[in-house]
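COMPLEX REQUEST
Ligand: zinc ion
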Amino acid sequence: MAPEPRCRICGDAVVEFLDFGTQPLSDAFRDPGDTAEEFTYRLAVGRCGTCGMVQLTEEVPREEMFHEEYPYLSRGSSVMREHFRSLAERFLTTELSGDDAFIVELGCNDGTMLKTVAEAGVRHLGVEPSGAVADLAAEEGVRVRKDFFEEATALDIVATEGQADVIYAANTLCHIPYMSSILRGVTALLRPEGVFVFEDPYLGDIVERTSFDQIYDEHFFLFSVSSVDEMARRHDLELVDVERLPVHGGEVRYTLARPGARKRSAAVEELLAEERGRGLGDLAVLERFAERVRTVRDDLVALLTRLRAEGHRIVGYGATAKSATVTNFCGIGPDLVEFVCDTTPAKQHKLTPGSHIPVRPSEAFSDDYPPYALLFAWNHADEIMAKEQAFRDAGGRWIRYVPDVHVV
Ligand SMILES: [Zn+2]
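STATUS: Structure written out below.
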């Protein structure tokens, strides 16, 4: 029997409430001829009874996920490019201490945010372990250190470059199980008046929308305002501001500072009160969420099976990391979905992890529109539906599964 999972924030027991079974790595796209056994793990989610943090019960070694070929690029979406540009402008105008200003980004990916900082001539450093995306950042004129961020990395940066006004991380912090080392590093690296800003998928949105595909190997923690508040307190930091963000299916941007360094905004208390009102931290609420997840699975499989039985082609849209949870949890393979189209060259002509559905370039979609497209990249739905108006004009219909299974 597996050992009882322990909370990666406080060390107490984690109570499991949702089990997705055996899963592959969400970004392990596979060559068609490859017969090697795939790396798998058990994807299950639990909640710590003491600090309330919702987290995976099993962790995948970081080198398995964030390696030379890590395929996700921030710059792929025009909405995300604008999101990061406006945030960089905000940092540049409101958070810098003077001539010696310094901004550090953890998991800077392809440099989409830091590019604006670099162009403004402000001292910066991106820390990024995934080699190929780090090279893309360097090509944009961004200074990158190819490394995982942890306490030792932070101490080394402090020794050579000094402390930072802003430490920022987008869709990175929730990836990292060894949070204590990260937060010790942050407190060492942060200037006395500095801010640590991070944004990640929000448990409140995941539960409200039943967007269970936000749960996969890379999303180790599912943060809520109350659990981040508690996590900050345990690491000698204070949660001073929160903002809800519409990107990636619903995120929250958290701002942490040294205790007493900043006034806590009213938004923090408002969201804390909202979470208490919804019972977001209650195990019973999370168990009802798990029930709805199983209903979505059953409804989606029933719909796809019926459409295929009626002779309709179905193509997947967006070979996203999050779609690995959907296809493998639901048992959706090439018998139901003919192929998945995606704009990322590194994924094209490969097979999706575990479910082994072929991935083809976008032209494969537009060259011969299917009657149905299963929208895996639903977090970019507005952008995609506007771009693919010709598919609708040709009579095509979108299959969606968030917040429930429906055809539009
Ligand atoms: Zn805990």
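REMARKS: The longest helix spans residues 283-309. The chain has a mean pLDDT of 94.
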